[in-house]
Structure formats: C-alpha cells, structure tokens
Amino acid sequence: MRILFIGDVVGKTGRTAISEHLPALIARWKLDLVVVNGENAAGGFGITEAIYQEFLDAGADAVTLGNHAWNQKEALVFIERAPRLIRPLNFPRHTPGRGAALIDTRDGRRALVINAMARIFMEPLNDPFRAIERELDACPLREAADAIVVDFHGEATSEKQSMGFFCDGRASLVVGTHTHVPTADHRILSGGTAYMSDAGMTGDYDSVIGMQREEPLRRFTTGIPSGRFEPAGGVATLSGVAVETDDATGLALRIAPVRLGGRLEPAEPSFWT
Known about the structure:
The protein has 6 helices and 12 strands. The protein is an alpha/beta fold. It has one domain: Metallo-dependent phosphatases (Purple Acid Phosphatase, chain A, domain 2, 4-Layer Sandwich).
C-alpha cells in the first residue's frame, strides 16, 4: 500500500498547498491512502466543516486532529457526522467523535487510522499507550486491517520515539505531529514499523512555527502579549512522509520525507518517481 501522511496544515496558505499539490500527487504516485493532520487549518486553530470537506475533495481519506481539536466550536457538533475526522483517542470519556477509524482505500482495502495525544508538556489526558494498545488489539494488522497509521500528536521527541517502539511490528506507520518542524529521523524500526518523530507542518516556514513572526518575537523579548497569533501567509511547504507497505504483512518496506514548495529544500520519495 502507498501511504502519504501530511503534517499539520496551518491556515489558508497550508490549505492552498493541499488543494494545489495533493490531487496531482495522488495521480502521479498512485497513492492508496492519504492522511492529513488538520488541527491548525482554520486560522491556525482548529478545523471547520467546510475545511474538512475541502480536504476530502482534494483527495484526503482521513483527517486527524490534536490539542486544537475544539478551537472551532462547530467541530464539537459536526464531528459526529464526519466519519473520517479523527480526534485524539485518549480524550476524556464521552468526548464527541472517534479516536480511530477504519478507512476503505481506493482499491477496496482497509486501513486503520489512529490519532492520540502525548502528555509530556501537553494536557494531562488518559494514557495514550494503553489507549492505542486497545485499538491495536481490537483491529490487528493483516487480520483486520491492511495497514495501520498512528498520528501521535505531541511535544516531546522521547515520548514519540517510545510510542514508535511500543507499536513496532503492530503498525505500518507511527508519525509525530504538533511541533511543526520536520525531523530527519525517518526510518523503519526493527519490527517493520515506519517511524518519523515529526512530519512538520504544511505552512509558511518564513514564520515562527507557522505564525507571523511579530507577536511571538514581542512576547519573547518583552514578556507582554499584545495581540493574537496570526498564521503567516507566504507560500507554504507541503510537508509529510511517504511510506510503502508490504501487502503480505502490512509492515513498511520504504519510507521517505516529502517537502514540496515554499522555503524548505524539496524532498520526494525516489521509489515512486
């Protein structure tokens, strides 16, 4: 299976990168599954139903979230009728929506997409390791799902790496989101799970993690907040990770970073070009 995971889409410029690049990538790389993290898509904070539909129309098969899941209050309502919108699994009990979804791919196979949130320097949520283990036990790789993608939304690399090893051999891909900076540690772990500590953001990198520079600089230099954080509006880099899995096992055969457009050095999977 050919899988593309796209990191946190930030604001309008990130959404533009999705609409401009994704349909062509699906055709050119013959992608089977596309997962987009959309938790920063609406003005940098949260997601709306219209934006969710925009991602699906561009070719996304699933949209994951994170700590900004509910910044747009409409998400609390529309997530119940959005089966491919996935919020963190370890949110408190009775939280609207779902933390995992079994997605039908373009060729009729099935992929389990899981979203969970880390806890170090984040909110004190339920144990993400135990929550993910329940999902992996309930829907084992190859027995019930042809591929399993875990979006682990967190700050600390150590916690993300631990989740990678925890899922090794039981998931196709474990990828970190949230920091908005792509890491260079993409690799296949010893048990066959593809791993990357952070997929980066799909946004304008001439910024402070996707936000216009002025307000963050003011706060760091004076300690005084004087305005809102606003998404930077320059040309975005589409940032993420490409994985190809073994149809017989569901485990990873190849992994490569993806960076297209904007200010970062371009990167594409050589095994698909």
